[in-house]
Every structure is written in C-alpha cells, then in structure tokens.
C-alpha cells in the first residue's frame, strides 16, 4: 500500500509533499489502523483521498489479466478499486461454493495489495451491476422468504455466502496488513427496506472479524430514503451513487439529465463518499459503447462533472463506475439492460485499451493523489469573477490555508469560450487573475500551496502532479492548447530562471516569481536559488500532460514522458528500469535519479538533457497476422431425444410469487434448470382433434423460444419479460400459438420446445416481484384436445471448472460438445445454410503471438439473419452473437482462456430461428503493444 507503507515508515514529515513510497515486500505484513472523521479516511492517522475505480473480476475470466487491468488502473493515478463480489458466480447450488481458478478472490486481493491499491469490498449480498439476478444465484429464487429482507429463509442463504466470503475479506483488511480499507453492505438499498437486515449484515461482518469502516452506496441522491446515516442499520460511512448523465448513449447532447452530480454529505461524522460516480454507461438502446464513451461520458463530462463534484462536495472517497467494464461471459448478464459486452464506455476498453477518458483520469487522478491538502477542506468563499458567465466555487484546507478554486460556467450547459478576471484573496495576498474557460470544461486552480519545497502562490494552470526527484521539485502543470497561463511562486530572494523550452516570460518582484506563457506544446522552466530547492516546471497542454506517467519506487517517484503505459518503475544503483508498454516507436524521457534506462529487460541508449532527464527511443511491436478460421466441422443438435432421464414436470406448487396458470408447474428453475437454454418435451397420445398448441414462456428481454412437433419445426415466438403480480395473474407474457399438422388418433406425439432464457431479472426494488419471475415455459395447452401431456425438461449442468454460469441446457452443452477435447464422432462438413434449431460448429487453430507483446484477440462475425451464436473458446462461453439485434460483432477472447502459444478450439452453438447463413467468422487483433503481463493459461478440464 503506497500510503500505508509510507505511514508505517514513520512520521516523515512529508504531509504536504505526499510523495508515496513503496517499501520492499515485508515477510509479515505490518498492520495498520483505519480511522476517519468528517474530512477523510486515515491510515495510521495519515489522511488519504481514496480515488477508486470499479472493477468486476467476474467479468474477466483470466486472473493474469486482472493484474493487467489493475496495473492500468493504478497507472491512471487511482489509489483504490471498488470490487463487487458476485454470489451467483461462486455458488451453483445451496451449500456449494467455489473460490478457485477464475473465482480465486483471495488471489485478487493479494494482487491489489501488491499493487498498492486500497480496496472497497462490495459483497452485496445483492449487487445489481447488470448481472443476472443482480448477483443472486438462480437457486435463491427457490428459497422461501423475501430476498433482501430479514426473512429467515433468505437470512440462512446469505449467511452461507458471507460465511464463505467474509473470512477471506477479513484477512485482507488494511488492519491486518492487507488492502481492504472499507466494507460496503448491500447496494442502493432504498425500496422496501428492512433495517434489521441492514443491521444483521453488519453484525455478520463484524462477527467475521471485519473491523474496517462499513459503508453503503445510497441510490442517486439523499431524496432516496433511508440513507442509512442514522438509526437501526446505519453504516459508518454512508455514500451516494451519482449518474448525472443517465444511460442513453444514443443522445449525443446530454448534459446532466439527472442533475449536477454533486455528492451529498449525509453525516457530519464521516467523509463525503461518492460511492459510485458515473464513469461510463450501460448501452440501453444499443448505440454501441463508443457512443457511451465519447458522447455521454467522455472527457468533457469528466472535466466538468468530476471537478465540480470534487470542489462542490468536498468528497474524499470516490468509486468511479466503471474503470474497466469487461464481459458478460456465460450467462452472467442481466437480460434487460445489457448484451455480452460490458465495456461500459469505460476509460479502459473491454479489450483493455486506454482511451482519451483514461488520459483525463490520469490528469485528475495524479492531481488528487499528489496534492495532500485536498484531504481536508472546508467550503470557502470563491474569488469574485468579473464576467458573470464564469463563476467560482472554493474550498480551503483549514490547516495549511491551501485553496482549491473551481472555475466553471455559471450556466453549466454553456458551450462558449469565456474570459474573466478573478479578484482572488489567497493565503499569499490578493491578486487580480485573468482566466479563460471553454464551454463544458472546468478547472481546479490552486493557491497557497507548499508544492514540495516550492511555494505556489497561485496558478491558472492546473496541477497534474509534482514530485521530488534527484533533489529537485519536478511539477507538471497544464492548460488548454492556446490558452494563457500564469504561475506565481514565492522565493526569499531572486532565483535564477532558465527557460529550457517554449516561450515563457518571467518577472520577479517582492519575493514573487511570476511566469506568463501560452499553453502550447511543453514548456520547461528551471528555477534555482531563491532560498529553495531547485524546481523544474513542465508547463504543457492537456495532451502533453497526459503523456506523463508517474510511478513510485523505493527511491521516490519517477516521471516518464512517452510510451503507451508505464506499469511500474524500479531504481537500483544508477539504473531505472521500467515495465512499460509501447504501441508505436517513439521517444521516451525519464525523470529519475538514474543515468541508465532499461525497459523490460532491454537497455535503452539514452542521453541526458538540459532538463536533467534521460531521453532515448523505443521501438514498437512486431506486426501480427492471425490465422484464418477454416476447416469448420458441424453437427446438428437432435430435436427429439430420449428423455427418460429428464425430470418430469410434476410440481403442483411453486415458490414463485407468480402462481402457475397451468399445472403441473413448468417453470424451469423449479426443476433446477437455472441458466441458458432449456429443452422441454411434451409427450401425448393424439386424439386427432388437436389443432394447435398454445404456449407461453418467460425468457427475459430478447429471449426467444422455438417449437417442433415430432421433430417438424412449427416456428418461434418472443419470450416474455414480465409476468404480472396483480390479477389476472400471469397474463400470457410471451404467448405463441402454433398450428399442429393433423395427427392420427392414438399415435404418440412429442412437442419439443427450446426456450432460450437470457438471465434473471434484478431485484432492484427488493420485493421479489422482479427477481423471482419464473423462466422457461409458464403455460402450455393443446387446442382442441384434452389429451394429457407429460412434460419433461432438461436444463444446465454446471461446468465445475468454468463455473455455474458457463452453460445452459443445450444437448451439446450437456454432452460436452463445447469442450475442446470433444469427440470428433458425429461431426461433418457444414451445409451451406443452417436449419432452424441448434447447429454446432467447431474449428481449431494454432496461435503463436510474438513473445513479450500484448495482442488482444477478438472473434468477429460478419453474418446477418435470424440467428444467435453462443461462442465457446476452449470450452469457455465468451458471449452470444445476436445477429438480428446487434450491435456487437466483435467478441473479446481473453488471453489465458485463449492460448496465445498453442492450439485453440472455437465452438459455436448456432441457434437459428429460420433458415440462415452463418456468414464469415474471423479472428481480429484488437490492438498490439510490446509489454503486457505474463499470461497463465487456464486449464481446459
Ligand atoms: C447503480 C448500481 C450498479 C449498476 C449501475 C448502473 O445504480 O448500483 O450496480 O447497476 O447502477 O450500471
């Protein structure tokens, strides 16, 4: 832990410097105290500003890549992560829990600690997160008692989950030398609340040894009650979730539909906690995630809303949702709001690439974690602005006097570039300060700050970061390209000023050095003498600033300009070694107490610059060619099969709040068919009078079901999404009537129905009415005949290695056709078209990607038509291509599941509604970098 170790290293009086130091790994992890007051969390008494990004390990089935993503999160300046834990992901059945392989959260928490990231754990039990059942296992639908209440049935179930998880979390707490700094109970628990339940969750945690502060994320704003700030069930640090942009990525001009997004203070005894702050969006209407990233939640949104929130709310705890979204692989996703990709338009894409949003996170994250006085501020009077179009909001640190002034447009939706003069009373005097601001931007200006060994009176450039490197203060300040900037520093006597690059005017009078410049490129100013340590000021544009990386080493921080990612740095003797990724050849410049540079294991020839840095050049990655996918084999799934081993639908009653309209009960979950497809077979002896079969299914949004009689296709219908709890109960949510061909009286007949369930509803309203909606057939009757029908059904069988959500109940899934070592028997050359029903395809290919490069690979579909394809790679179900719905055509295949050096098998289960053509399927390289992390292949059996 960067800060923790710093604190443990004794009371080095670097509070204002906040230059975190990573100590070498200790044998026994030192323990720490975690406390808090109205301003901030404190570790061993030292205040921290927790700048966390949300990450879902369960959306990235490759522990090696957890490290990649966590390193990228840290490199963006985050000092923390928020982690949901998904109950469903770990539990295929009551009493059965698995924390191995891709579910090894112990390993995840170890990694967070190694990387110096604080963790806010969010174990639910309910998490929402657009996961099937909001993270509840499907089997919970069969448990009597309202979920998210203190009902005994539900209580016994969640205690089982927390009984497994809490002890793991407990041993990773900061207080025991680990990374967990706070424990969040429940999730946006606002409707149908039960205070005893909230209290029980906390008592359960405490009994398991959780002693870090307990938090909660209140939905949306304090108008939602209760806030859990007081009374039974109150948590120590109540937080608020804010999604000011809502979730419509189709609308490019959205600007705060859901308000200012200023996190409310819910109590005076704890810091303001922005538990979930919007950092991307679900793609409700399938605009594609790039629209979410660029239009809705892009850098402008981040600049305005995040900075506005930082200064207006004084929050010192943040969880940005999401830093990295990931993939709804298997049947992980909730059906209504998401598709396979959970990219989320986040700063780091699903294919683990860094975007413009990442650059903005870096500018802000480095600032908030470098400038310590931000951890303790009170509202203060902002400087008056001469132009009413611009306005200020301010906070000040009561101990140091340091001021943080937000400069924003008075009309937050303004799109104009405006200028003004601020009448600014700073701790160092009163100044008339010219400023300018673009529309949909905001600046945080700092005054009265001991910036390392320097005294910053004020600046109209924003501070990105500063660090003491080799006895000098190196500071990176920035502003919009072409805008004017001024920085005023105080000295005891006139210092010497050398402008090494760019055009900067300097003047000195009365102890003040004033620098005036236009932000353009990267100006460099060396200041020495004047009774202070030397300083190198790097004054750049937004873009130039984003080229810098900061990495902490045991010899202090280093700064790097260039490369596409600096994961970590080490200084030993006179050599600085970087773990860095490079997308294309270019210059690299390093500010470190060193004379030699090594990147990875390659020495990089360098020269020393007048800035005191090392400059060299790095080469880019070797190009890659991926194999074409050829030699497909295919095999059709039988429609009528021997069903004698299948359970008979025989139940007369159901736990579902929706009383069945036909009996026996046909609900899939009532017979253990929890995820994905379910095959039903209804056997009867024809009377000859049957004219049709009338069916009814609930699949969740976008689900379909298909019907055959004696193997002959009768057609398909959309499955329903919602049954009504009000009378008339169960009003035919997904009706379909299928005409039967004439049947001879007395002949045996079989109706086959394939129901494609898309996942379980969430439980946002905590009333069981959504969550406990049945799946599968909810009604079936013959029209024209009362011949008794015996229904049997076949659902999923959990894959022990890949987890409960990997598979549904397709015949080929149950028979293991999706596995890479499936027998070749029964497979043949594919026909030109796919017939309605399920046709399996498989092919093998070898990969040998260049060693030491990170090449995320995707599977691309170019076909169209009425079909879906479940994608299995080496047995892992990585998504569903919905040819008729879009928008996703490329599916990320995570390294580890994908063998980058060796043989791979792609297997597709194509579910065609009408005759269709699969269309081209190909491998695509989604990026190419040198660097990356070592990849551990997942087992296939
Ligand atoms: C929040 C919720 C998260 C997630 C998010 C939208 O309200 O707490 O779990 O669902 O909305 O992506």
Automatic annotation (TrEMBL):
Span of the signal peptide: 1-28
Keywords: Glycoprotein, Glycosidase, Hydrolase, Signal
The EC number(s) this enzyme carries: 3.2.1.23
Entry annotated with the keyword Signal: yes
One Pfam family cited in the UniProt record for this chain: Glyco_hydro_35
GO MF assignments: beta-galactosidase activity
Family: Belongs to the glycosyl hydrolase 35 family.
One GO-annotated biological process of the protein: carbohydrate metabolic process
Record-linked Gene3D superfamilies: Beta-galactosidase, domain 2 (2.102.20.10), Galactose-binding domain-like (2.60.120.260), Glycosidases (3.20.20.80)
Domain of life of the organism encoding this protein: Bacteria
Reactions catalysed: Hydrolysis of terminal non-reducing beta-D-galactose residues in beta-D-galactosides
Name by which UniProt lists this protein: beta-galactosidase
InterPro entries in the record: Betagal_dom2, Betagal_dom2_sf, BetaGal_dom3, BetaGal_dom3_sf, BetaGal_jelly_roll_dom, Galactose-bd-like_sf, GH, Gly_Hdrlase_35_cat
Every Beta-galactosidase domain range: 373-548
Lineage of the organism: Bacteria, Bacillati, Actinomycetota, Actinomycetes, Pseudonocardiales
């Amino acid at each position: 832990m960067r800060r923790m170790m710093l604190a443990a290293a004794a009371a080095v009086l670097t509070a204002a410097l906040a230059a975190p130091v990573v100590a070498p790994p200790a044998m026994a992890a030192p323990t720490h105290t975690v406390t808090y007051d109205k301003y901030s969390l404190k570790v061993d008494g030292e205040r921290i500003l927790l700048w966390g990004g949300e990450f879902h390990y369960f959306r990235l089935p490759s522990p090696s890549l957890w490290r990649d993503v966590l390193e990228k999160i840290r490199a963006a300046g985050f000092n923390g992560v928020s982690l949901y834990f998904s109950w469903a992901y770990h539990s295929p059945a009551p009493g059965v829990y698995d924390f191995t392989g891709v579910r090894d959260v112990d390993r995840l928490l170890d990694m967070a600690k190694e990387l110096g990231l604080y963790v806010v754990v969010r174990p639910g039990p309910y998490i929402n997160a657009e996961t099937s059942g909001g993270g509840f296992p499907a089997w919970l639908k069969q448990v009597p008692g309202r979920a998210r209440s203190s009902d005994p049935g539900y209580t016994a179930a969640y205690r089982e989950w927390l009984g497994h998880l809490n002890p793991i979390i407990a041993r990773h707490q900061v207080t025991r030398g680990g990374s967990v700094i706070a424990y969040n109970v429940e999730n946006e628990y606002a409707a149908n609340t039960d205070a005893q339940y909230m209290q029980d969750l906390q008592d359960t945690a405490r009994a398991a040894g959780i002693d870090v502060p307990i938090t909660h994320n209140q939905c949306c704003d304090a108008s939602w009650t209760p806030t859990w700030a007081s009374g039974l069930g109150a948590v120590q640090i109540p937080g608020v979730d804010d999604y000011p942009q809502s979730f419509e990525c189709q609308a490019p001009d959205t600007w705060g539909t859901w308000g200012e997004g200023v996190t409310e203070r819910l109590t005076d005894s704890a810091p303001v906690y922005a538990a979930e702050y919007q950092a991307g969006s679900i793609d409700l209407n399938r605009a594609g995630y790039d629209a979410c990233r660029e239009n809705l939640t892009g850098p402008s949104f981040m600049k305005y809303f995040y900075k506005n929130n930082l200064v207006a709310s004084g929050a010192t705890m943040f969880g940005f949702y999401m830093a990295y979204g990931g993939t709804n692989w298997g049947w992980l996703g909730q059906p209504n709001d998401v598709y396979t990709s959970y990219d989320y338009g986040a700063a780091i894409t699903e294919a683990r690439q860094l975007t413009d949003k990442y650059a903005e996170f870096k500018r802000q994250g480095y600032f908030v974690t470098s400038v310590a006085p931000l951890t303790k501020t009170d509202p203060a009077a902002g400087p008056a602005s001469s132009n009413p179009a611009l306005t200020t909001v301010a906070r000040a640190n009561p101990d140091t006097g340091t001021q943080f002034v937000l400069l924003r447009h008075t009309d937050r939706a303004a799109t104009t570039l405006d200028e003004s003069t601020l009448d600014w009373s700073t701790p160092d005097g009163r100044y008339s300060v010219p400023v300018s601001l673009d529309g949909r931007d905001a600046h945080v200006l700092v005054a009265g700050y001991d910036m390392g060994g320097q005294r910053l009176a004020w600046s109209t450039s924003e501070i990105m970061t500063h660090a003491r490197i080799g006895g000098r203060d190196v500071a990176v300040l920035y502003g919009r390209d072409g805008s004017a900037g001024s920085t005023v520093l105080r000295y005891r006597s006139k210092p010497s000023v050398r402008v090494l690059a760019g055009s900067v005017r300097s003047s000195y009078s009365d102890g003040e050095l004033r620098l005036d410049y236009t932000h353009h490129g990267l100006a460099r100013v060396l200041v020495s003498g004047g009774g202070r340590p030397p300083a190198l000021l790097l004054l750049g544009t937004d873009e130039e600033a984003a080229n810098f990386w900061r990495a902490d080493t045991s010899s202090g921080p280093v700064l790097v300009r260039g490369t596409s990612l600096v994961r970590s740095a080490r200084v030993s003797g006179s050599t600085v070694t970087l773990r860095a990724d490079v997308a294309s050849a270019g210059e690299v410049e390093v500010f470190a107490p060193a004379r030699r540079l090594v990147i990875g294991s390659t020495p990089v020839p360098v020269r020393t610059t007048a800035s005191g840095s090392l400059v060299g050049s790095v080469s880019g990655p070797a190009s890659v060619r991926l194999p074409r996918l050829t030699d497909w084999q295919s095999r059709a799934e039988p429609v009528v099969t021997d069903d004698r081993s299948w359970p008979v639908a025989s139940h007369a009653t159901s736990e579902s709040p929706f009383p069945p309209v036909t009996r026996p009960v046909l609900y899939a979950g009532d017979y253990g068919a929890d995820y994905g497809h379910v095959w039903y077979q209804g056997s009867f002896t024809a009377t000859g009078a049957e004219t049709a079969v009338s069916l009814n299914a609930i699949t969740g949004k976008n689900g379909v079901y298909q019907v055959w009689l004696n193997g002959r296709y009768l057609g398909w219908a959309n499955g329903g999404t919602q049954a009504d709890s009000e009378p008339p109960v169960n009003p035919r949510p997904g009706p379909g009537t299928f005409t039967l061909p004439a049947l001879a009286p007395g002949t045996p007949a079989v109706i086959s129905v394939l129901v494609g369930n898309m996942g379980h509803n969430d439980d946002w309203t905590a009333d069981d009415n959504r969550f406990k909606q049945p799946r599968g057939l909810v009604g079936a009757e013959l029209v024209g005949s009362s011949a008794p029908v015996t229904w049997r059904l076949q659902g999923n069988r959990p894959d022990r290695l890949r987890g409960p959500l990997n598979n549904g109940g397709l015949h080929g899934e149950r028979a293991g056709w999706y596995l890479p070592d499936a027998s070749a028997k029964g497979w043949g050359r594919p026909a030109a078209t796919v017939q309605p029903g399920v046709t399996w395809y498989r092919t093998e290919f070898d990969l040998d990607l260049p060693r030491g490069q990170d090449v995320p690979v995707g599977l691309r579909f170019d076909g169209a038509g009425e079909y879906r394809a479940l994608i299995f790679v080496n047995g892992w179900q990585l998504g569903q291509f919905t040819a008729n719905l879009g928008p996703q055509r490329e599916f990320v295949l995570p390294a580890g599941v994908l063998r980058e050096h060796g043989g791979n098998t792609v297997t597709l289960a194509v579910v065609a509604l009408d005759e269709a053509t699969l269309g081209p399927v190909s491998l695509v390289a989604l990026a190419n970098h040198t660097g990356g992390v070592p990849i551990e292949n997942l087992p296939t059996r």
